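User: structure tokens for Chromosome 3, complete genome, please.
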Amino acid sequence: MSDRSPNEETAGVDTPGVRTPRALSQNLDVDTITQQLSACLQTPQGNPPFIAPVGFDEALSATDHSEPISKAFKQRGFWPWLAYFLVTKNGDKLSYFFECLSALPLDIVSDIAGRVASVPVEPTLVMRLQNTLWTARRGSQRRSQLQQLGIHDFPPAPTSSPLPEPSPRKRPRVQPLHNYDNTTSAIDRRNFHSIVSDIPQTGDANTPYYPARDKPVEWPRIVENTNPWTPDPDSLHNYAYPNASKIPLVFSPELGDMIVRNENFTASIFASFPSNPDRCRLVLDIEAGMVAPLAMKLYDAQVVETGRQRAFRLPSGAILEIMSAVRLTNTKLSRWEELLGSLIGGVRNAQEYVNEVGHGLAMTKCLAMEVPGATNSPARISLVMDPMVLDDVIKKLWPPERSY
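Assistant: Done. Predicted tokens:
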């Protein structure tokens, strides 16, 4: 990684903004170098992160792993290698840090890497790398690349409860379910009956289930059915299941990785473009493994998994089982910017969102997420979209010969 330009993009992981003037670069002692490397592993990542560090895949496929300094960190394990990667990717730190390390004997460099290997790693950084290596679509490929590099001590797969126990001093802000009039409630009151539903989980798989919508959606009664959703059936202008190869034309790599792919090389993406432009929607099915991290990041709702059942952990510590499905609404648009990328403009310009802003609402219902109770079922994200933006999305995902 020593051949990278100092002007490359930042690592995409929160790191301390410590910068040393070039004139002092050669004066960094071993303790200072160790502290700066260790700090990269001890910086909180903010909201539970799920996006790989920028450049992480490039680092895995770099050609300089046999370079002595990089090799010294790699031989000490995953976390020292990651710390070295984060520091040397952080703008102008590349030159002075590599110069300082190059001036040291290799046994001292190895000793520094050993010290870094012994520092406790920030839990949110562990969570980020767990999602990068296990939950993301490219996770298997990334683990294979690490093993080919001789790195085998990377973080293990997330447990069945991917989020930490709530801290008594800092709990997730899930709103009380008894407050029917709270317009900022994370859980849509219209669908509260689905949380406490007494409908059994077995029976006729074709029995219609009616979530908080204006139309029926087929709901599976058998847990093994991993996709309970069907495209919206009531519009004459529906588009469904584009070729999965079209995903990069519209979505960021992070969001694209989460979208459900089907055996026939299609993606579970739907668009509704009815005559009423206020009802334009873009709908995405999200892989089951990303449901809990997304619910926390986008709604501050802590979803945990107990066996084959999803549940909410309330601020009190109580568990609220999701017997069928829930619909999360009322979120801040800013929480979605990193995930949606340029698509955020389609939501911001939608008439429904403009109306919300006009009424002084700080939270929006234009971004919804439906979460099924079965742990192996995907979630469904629904985005209110500006007609012009959605039309452009449709043209990219469904070329004329593939229109519905």
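User: Anything notable?

Assistant: The two ends are 47 Å apart (CA to CA).
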